[in-house]
Design brief:
- Helix 3 packs across helix 4 and helix 3 runs parallel beside helix 5.
- The relative contact order is 0.20.
- The protein is built from 7 helices and 10 strands.
- The protein is globular.
- By secondary structure, the chain is α/β, with parallel strands linked by helices.
- The strands form 2 sheets. The chain has a 6-stranded mixed sheet with strand order 6-7-8-3-9-10, with helices on both faces. Strands 2-1-4-5 form a 4-stranded antiparallel sheet, with helices on one face.
- The structure holds adenosine-5'-diphosphate (ADP) and magnesium ion.
- The site of magnesium ion has 3 residues, from helix 1.
Length: 233
């Protein structure tokens, strides 16, 4: 099957004052449609940088990122915006919800950027939040939600524009073990039930093993091992 996202010999350097930091040192990786891929490795090994360049949030220093076979570097602004908003959805360790907006408004805002009409936005946000078990929490602010609920709102927001791929950066990093298991179960169900492709960064190898079909390990900006070949566990 053709990869949906592909990194080819990607390097990424950051300038830090006069010094330079190399976050990625020649990473090549294919993400296949429908797979659940885990990315593990210790802090500072380049995992978030990889997700950011795959998601089109940051540019590579050398090498290429392909989206459905198309090089991001050759995309026009509108195509790149389409990739960021429609091909991928992202979730983060710290949820990144807008604190002054309710759960429903956070989801609606993702749709507003995509020219969906107001009543359609309200309906779709409510539908998504209900499907994630948040029917009774829609009108709450992020500060009134538990960590697990907040992450589910973030997942609803990430799914608002029907992306093909969910990029998840340590989605359980701020959650206790029971809530982590719940969120992992949810990601697993979305992958299986809705054929959502998932790329999940985690430092927790045991979680990765439970839900991912394939795991790649990063060390110092490089992929140093890969386990599991199957699309699913
Ligand atoms: P991980 O997610 O595996 O912890 P990161 O991808 O966040 O690792 O970081 C890889 C390396 O790049 C680290 O040394 C980090 O300090 C550096 N880095 C990441 N983002 C930036 C940035 N915006 N500016 C400077 N250095 C950065
Ligand atoms: Mg990180």
């Amino acid at each position: 099957m053709k990869p949906i996202l592909s990194a080819k010999n990607v390097t990424k350097r950051y300038a830090k004052g006069a010094a330079q930091i190399t976050a990625l040192r020649g990473v090549s990786l294919d993400v296949k449609p429908g797979e659940f891929l885990a990315v593990v490795g210790r802090s500072g090994s380049g995992k978030s940088t990889l997700l950011n360049v795959l998601g089109g949030l940051d540019e590579v220093t050398s090498g290429s990122i392909f989206v459905n076979g198309k090089d991001i570097a050759g995309m026009k602004r509108t195509e790149l915006a389409h990739h960021r908003r429609r091909t991928v959805g992202m979730i983060f360790q710290s949820f990144n919800l807008i604190p002054s907006r309710t759960a429903r408004e956070n989801v609606e805002l993702a749709l507003a950027f995509n020219n969906v009409g107001r009543s359609e936005r309200r309906k779709k946000a409510a539908r998504l939040l209900s499907s994630l078990g948040l029917k009774e929490r829609m009108d709450h602010l992020p500060s009134e939600l538990s960590g697990g609920e907040a992450q589910r709102v973030a997942i609803a927001r990430a799914l608002a524009n029907d992306p093909s791929v969910l990029l998840a950066d340590e989605p359980t990093g701020n959650l206790d073990s029971a809530t982590s298991a719940e969120i992992l179960g949810l990601l697993h169900d979305l992958n299986r039930g809705q054929n959502l492709t998932v790329v999940m960064v985690t430092h927790d190898k045991a979680s990765a093993r439970r839900v991912a079909g394939r795991t790649v390990e990063f060390l110092d900006g490089r992929i140093v091992s890969e386990t599991g070949k199957g699309i699913r566990p």
